[in-house]
Amino acid sequence: MAENVSYVKEAIKEPLNIWMMVIFVAMAVFAATAARDFSLLAWLAPWIPLAAGGAFEALYLSTVPNTPGYKRLVDQRSRRRALADRGRRREELIKSFDPREREAVEYLRWMKNQIYQNYQKFTAVTDLPERIQTLDVYWESYVDLLDTYRRRKNHMRSINRQTIQNQMQQAERSIANAPDDDTRRLYETNLEFLQKRLNTYNDIERSMKRVEAQLQSIESFFGLVNDQVITMPTPEHISSLDFESLLSSIELTKEILDETAPIHKPNGHERALIAGRSAPDGAKTIASGPGFRVQGFEFRVNPKPKPQTLNPEP
């Protein structure tokens, strides 16, 4: 965060600096309009306050932005703004969830707040331990992972494994019956695309199961912490909970999600093929995706009464 902040710009925007510039300008206006009416100030020329203000500004900007204390202050402000902006965007994201997903998120938020209140109540402390406050991080990860699951689930509704496999079989038959080498290469490229689509489908399916398991482990951990806080004999008893393993599993899940969403860059032949075709061959069907249960709430895609087929199956 700090490397993206201009300390000089922040110093210019400081209220103290702005008010000092206003005072110097006001003095220059006074010297140009009314100073001659006062015998003691008749010598004051308008350029004198402006020159003094310029010298003050140059000294201010050459010293204050470079002091360690001011840099720390600006960095703290930047972090607070970034946290506030991240929280605002996450709340907007939650509003885009469907009612059952929002209910699951809000339930986990309520449980987190209950844990905080119970810990402070039973231990008579005002500041929560850092280990307990990591529940904020886990809750944010829960929201992010649920959003990832939701987007991938919606994408799975637009594709169908059997359709892709049928298209691959058709492409293989077309390769065998191609009238010339150029046409065969086009069919082979199409088969390559279809194979990549099938691999991507399998990757998304596996990643969704991983996210589902991670969501359930987060909510189970929240329930465990809440039980431990209610029944703990001493505050040190909470330290026996393995907060680090959950954090490690969340980070590993996010890394796996990044790896299962590769960006394929087509080669020259593929780009030429894409540029020369208005739409891919084969049918596209709308099928229902999988579902799962989180904290007693069931997330399931409503099945379509009738698939939409854009092109007939072979």
Key traits:
single chain, two-stranded antiparallel ribbon, 2% strand, disordered C terminus
CA gyration radius, whole angstroms: 32 Å
- Major β-sheet strand ordering: 1-2
**Main pleated-sheet profile:** 2 strands, antiparallel
- What is the succession of H and E elements? HHHHHHHHHHEE
Tally of domains: 2
Helix content estimate: 55-70%
SS field, number of helical segments: 10
Shape by Cα distribution = flat
Mean pLDDT score: 78
User: How many beta-strand runs?
Assistant: 2
Q: Could you give the distance between the termini?
A: 56 Å
Helix- and strand-based class?
Answer: mainly alpha
What does this structure look like?
- The protein has 314 residues and is mostly helical.
- It folds into 2 domains: 2-87, no CATH class; 96-299, no CATH class.
- It contains 10 helices and 2 strands, in the order H-H-H-H-H-H-H-H-H-H-E-E.
- The longest helix is centred in the middle third of the chain and has 51 residues, at 181-231.
